[in-house]
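Form 7-S
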Amino acid sequence: MPSFDIVSEIESVDVRHAVENANRELATRFDFRGIKASFEFKDDQVKLAAEADFQLKQMRDILRSALTKRGVDVNSMESQKEDASGKNWYQTIIFKQGIDKDMAKKIVKLVKDNKVKVQASIQGDKVRITGKKRDDLQASIALIKQSELGQPFQYENFRD
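Output:
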């Protein structure tokens, strides 16, 4: 029986390169001249540091554009609360890896509710879709792509 897996992963190398590009752009931007602002990538997290909270918003936009240029889906970004310490502001951005149980249940429910003749099963941090026909599998991929679940998905391990 044909099957495939739905996963949600990002390439940390691409994120690292995007952070390096964003740091270079910070050094050349006129509005950040003479201001201590930086991006730091560590353990699939990016830490933003700036002197004001509005600068953090600008830095998030810079990071989004750098990620888009590197081909990383910005829906995987999850911004944490901004913290102020002394005269500096900090914010951590976490990148979602894997499919958590709630999202996996949403995917399984979505596939079952739309009466596509496939079976969906949760296997750890991925969801396996099996069906009798390749067309049914492709219909389920199209269904998941158009449903806008707020997280990027990749479709791999396709077997006939």
